[in-house]
Design a protein that fits this description.
four-stranded antiparallel beta sheet, mainly beta, globular
């Protein structure tokens, strides 16, 4: 129900835009987030956008990444600029109802590799 795409190989300092298309859920009423998991590490929070558009970011990506959503297209985006080698990970999108305390939906992940 969540299909992530846009990952790939990029040089340090470059940019990528990830997309996550949702189906089968009330996208407009869901909080959407991006997470990532680097090899040998636990999954970590990257960014979140509420249904009203408010955003929050992990300190490690603040000012470099931008999360946005297009409710007409049922899609959430993650624009990643000034990429660093430490951003290398599999990126997952997730969604939850506003009233939920945990994410109800997860995408399959898209791999981002940043070469230094």
């Amino acid at each position: 129900q969540l299909q992530a795409s846009g990952g790939g190989l990029v040089q340090a300092g470059g940019s990528l835009r990830l997309s996550c298309a949702a189906s089968g859920l009330s996208f407009r009423s869901n909080v959407m987030g991006w997470f990532r998991q680097a090899p040998g590490r636990e999954r970590e929070f990257v960014a979140r956008i509420w249904n009203g558009g408010t955003t929050i970011y992990a300190d490690s990506v603040k000012s470099r990444f931008t999360i946005s959503r297009d409710n007409a297209k049922n899609t959430v985006y993650l624009q990643m600029d000034s990429l660093k080698a430490e951003d290398t990970a599999v990126y997952y999108c997730a969604g939850r109802k506003v009233s939920s305390t945990s994410y109800d939906y997860w995408g399959q992940g898209t791999e981002v590799t940043v070469s230094s």
